[in-house]
Amino acid sequence: MIERRATATGSVPRLVSVATALPEHVVRQEDAQRFAAGLFADLVAGQERRLLGVFSGAGIESRRSCLPLDAFDRPRGFGETNQLYLEHALRLGAEAASRALAAAELAPADVDHIVFVSSTGIATPSLDARLAHLMGFRADVRRTPLWGLGCAGGAAGVARARDFALAEPGARVLLVAVELCTLTFQQRDRTRQNLVAAALFGDGAAAAVIAGARARRQGANGTRALDLLESRSTLLPDSLDVMGWNVDELGLHVIFSRDIPAIVRDWVRPTLDDFLAGLGLALADVAHLVTHPGGPKVLAAYAESLDLGPGALRHACEVLRAFGNMSSPTCLFVLERVLEAGEIGPGDLALLAALGPGFSSEVTLMRGAET
Question: Radius of gyration over alpha carbons of the chain, in Å?
């Protein structure tokens, strides 16, 4: 059925490269815990072991930040924080984009469409326009900025880039996902959610090149290209309060529910089964799961729900351990590792999956390219 659908639409877009970029400042988890212990002293008094245990239980050894740790010891207004976002997100996004284009043997002038994903700052003109000026994209490049997708943004970005390449088979689409999650830390916010965010989130960027069937499609430095077969976006009813931002004069305040692991455990499997059944497939036909590592409990819920064996999510665990949860680009960091390991063979099916505000699921079915 997959082949019939691809033939009916005329072609299958292909992901030909993926690349990542990180800011320079390394934050060791033990240093972040000491910082939080001092800052949140009133919150953790009398229950320090239980609350600060979120740092040791996060499955994280280090993260990257656009600012050094001691820069977070004073509050900032939204305007100052957003100016930092503009400066650092532009630089980091350009770095990831340059690497992805180089891996695909393309220049900025070869790009027909930019899809830019971010939810940790705002910009008008949008950052894709700023990237176009900085990197030298053509004046007629089409631009689609996507905001508010959170952790699902990387997977959603791949799906939307696929849609554009499917609609225009000669197009080369550049996806760029950048998040500076550390800038959303609220120094005056003494809530448990802010403490958990301080233990979990880091900064990073990723980019990918998706090419239509009639575009020149050079693989990335010997790694296997991926045919993008189908995608699906799914919203969970009555779940707007599960994940997102509250916004005030100080900026973005994180919202996430304790119920997320339970939602993953109970909702993800039926959603994936329904998606695959519509393509004449079952989960057993999928050789690789490339998922956003929201945290150890989310990964455990994925493993339980999908009956995954030991090691099935090792790349996601490794990305979480080394870089924390970077929101939208994180699943592309995992995909980069899977491709570099050479684990997706020709014809192998793989799922790129992530969850985010809405509450939403984003999945794309991929296949290892034959050539």
Answer: 20
pLDDT in the model for residue 175: 98
What pLDDT, on a 0 to 100 scale, did the predictor assign at position 188?
81
C-alpha–C-alpha distance, residues 76 and 103, integer Å: 38
Q: What is the pLDDT of residue 219?
A: 53
Number of other residues whose CB lies within 10 A of the CB of residue 299: 22
Q: How many Å apart are CA 258 and CA 79, to the nearest integer?
A: 30
Local structure of residue 247 (DSSP, 8 states): E
Q: Which residue has the tokens 């609350």?
A: 51
φ, ψ of residue 126 to 5 degrees: the values are -70, 160
The packing angle between helices 314-323 and 296-306, to 10°, is 170
Only one residue has tokens 């010997």, namely 222
pLDDT digits (tens, 9 = 90+) for 247-286: 888 888 888 878 888 888 889 999 999 999 999 999 999 9
Residue 46 vs residues 31, 36, 51, 54, 199: alpha-carbon distances, Å:
21, 15, 10, 16, 19
> Is there a catalytic annotation at residue 151?
yes
Q: Which structure tokens are listed for 332?
A: 């592309």
In the numeric block, which tokens belong to residue 177? Answer: 């996902």
Domains and their CATH numbers in the chain:
2-9+226-368 (3.40.47.10), 16-211 (3.40.47.10)
Residues with Cβ within 8 Å of residue 8, at least 6 apart in sequence = none
Residues 6+ apart with CB under 8 A from 343: 288
C-beta separation of 177 from 18 below 8 A: no
State residue 91's pLDDT score.
Answer: 97
| Residue 89 near residue 78 (C-beta atoms within 8 A) | no
Task: For residue 160, give Cα distances in angstroms to 114, 210, 229, 326.
Answer: 11, 10, 12, 20
Neighbours of 187 (CB within 10 A): 13
Peptide bond into 333 cis (omega under 30): no
State residue 46's pLDDT score.
61
Under-50 pLDDT residues of the chain: 3-10
In the three-class reduction of DSSP (H, G, I as helix; E, B as strand; rest coil), residue 233 is classed as strand
Q: How far apart are CA 7 and CA 9, in angstroms?
A: 5
Check 151, 181, 317, 331 and give the catalytic one.
151
